[in-house]
Amino acid sequence: MQACVCEKDAFCCETQWDATCVGEVGSFGCGMCPATGTDPTPMPPAAGTTIDEATPANIRAAFIAALTAAQPAAGTPAAELLAKLQAEGDAQTHRDRVDAYLAACETRPARDLVDDVLRHTHRVRQLLRSTTSLIEHPEQMPTMTASVAASAHLDPATCMLAE
Q: What per-residue confidence (pLDDT) applies to 93?
């Protein structure tokens, strides 16, 4: 799954595995079994991590247990995710990063922001068309002729399309 995302978005493995990379697992079809096109078998929980109630805390604990049991290699997205999940009291840091990103987006000229968002959306849709059985018909979905690099993403610091 990780290699699949990184093949299509090098930023995730070369720079930082972030929420966009997590979202790309599904949008790139990296969470699908290639042979059948069906959802993969869920990752089995590590011993003692059965989730009795699907609360955020319980889900987080199950991810931590499963990732810890998997012993991801240092520097991999899985290791980075494990470290972020284990970080205590990081909610304010996360809120600060989100606020900074939103502030950067708000300072951009609206036309430039919309152009970057449309170009990024176009790239994701192109990848979806080639990797999933997403139901789209040419008559229903507009196309663009813009050329967008596979590594394009909205930069979390500037809110600009980075290629």
A: 85
